[in-house]
Sequence to fold (531 residues):
Amino acid sequence: LKVSKKQNKSKKWDINKLLYMDNITPADVYKRYNGLYEDKSIEEEEDDDEDIVADENPLLKFKKSDKAIKAIQSQKMSIDELAAKWSDLSLISDRLLVLPKLNENDDNDGE
Amino acid sequence: MSSNSKSTGKQSDYLILETEFNFRYRIVLSLINNKPIKITKIRNDLNEHLNPGIASYEIKFLRLIEKFTNGTFIEISHTGTQIVFKPGIIIGCKNLIFDTFIQSKDSTECKSIGYYVEPLLVLLPFTKLRENFITFKGITSKSDTAVNLNSTDESDFACDTLRFNYLPLMEKFGIMDISLTIFKRGSYPNGGGELQLHSKTPTAFTPNLQILDEIKFDKVMGIVYGNRISPSIIQRIDKELKRLLGSELKLPLDYQIMQDQWKGENSGKSPGYGVFLQITNSKQKQWSKFAITSEVTIDELNSKDQSFVIPEDLAKYATYKFLEEIDHAPIVNTSTLPFLISLLYFNKVGNLSRLLISKKQITPYFIKFLRDINLIFNNKILLKELSDFESTDDNDSNNKDNLLLVVKGSGVLNTNRKVT
Fold:
């Protein structure tokens, strides 16, 4: 599956096409959709001589893709990183249904 | 090796699926759709797996399916890397006692009861018997599920997650008479836990959902549980949780943390403790069945990650993991999505269910699940960017992170009951 460099970076993949394609592993779907995919063969597209070298061993490519699943799976944040991220609730504040206090609600008494 | 599933169709009557991923859901969906499957290349890479072939917990699961159905044909190849599954009739069980416990030094070989109960919940609306009553014995919660933030098929949920996350979802779709009762808590490695699943097969079951906005939550509930451990550990976790939620994070919602100490005969054969956290919406009735939950369990004597053995650290990790889950999930947990989608598939033919999911919830395992369900039911689930729709909300920033999952009903009916 070859795509232009621009398309890869713009992250505007049609997820439905990616999801059900036969020749792409779920790990690659994940990476492409999230803009994490770095296909070396794309970078080497401009140099025709090196392009052949990159496609020399397709088996290696598959092995890398399978390992990518494990890499994604093992993406864990340490407790310190989590503590830094969650020093306050600003990231999820819009998900919390906080009822306004009675004093602040005086203006909306009409209904 | 491609991990994609392939269908040969004409060559054989079986749908051929590759690798061990989604093992339980493949079996369950094959049963419901009455489609024979052949799973090949099960842990066949000798470089990656010391024990190639089907795992003992998967065999245990197949035994449970054998007891739950009638006429099911299962054939495991000599090397264990290939199985043939021909579905029978889903009968159900009236008084089954099923021991899930596997004596093994390898913690990955031994799954908790949740691993067996979760796929069975999908089968319950399709049983021939009006009432099912199964007692599971084994491990009620296990630590290796805790550290895994991503959803995988290998996840074996702790019993509290099943009780507070899965059962309310089933109630939402009309499966009202269903309960999961913990009689004994048992931890890894020796187990000794006991769980009873009781359900009545519903007469009408039409799962349909239209959720286009993120759910807002207003109540946090937590359970700090422990068996065969000093009560002071539970008290320390409880104290730290309340400190974190209250004085440190200043959570502007009602929160209630309960202590659940198990002693004596009901506390299983091994010590263990853990934290379960849940956030719900108690004010708006239409959202009341949806919850985002998180559970962290420690098998005290066998924890690989020693940093979580300190009760305060466990409380911190549980809280942060819980907040991560709320951040990632607009409606339900990432790990609950396959279960929910499986139920939505049983909607009437052509009826569409629409559900908001986060882009972060699209994991490789979720993609594998979508591919499998498409192969078994020949019905694609579509994901749509919210930017394709006219924005009616002010929350455009949220729309960038979310997708709309569109599930077309397959119209599967409980034909097993109609026969009698």
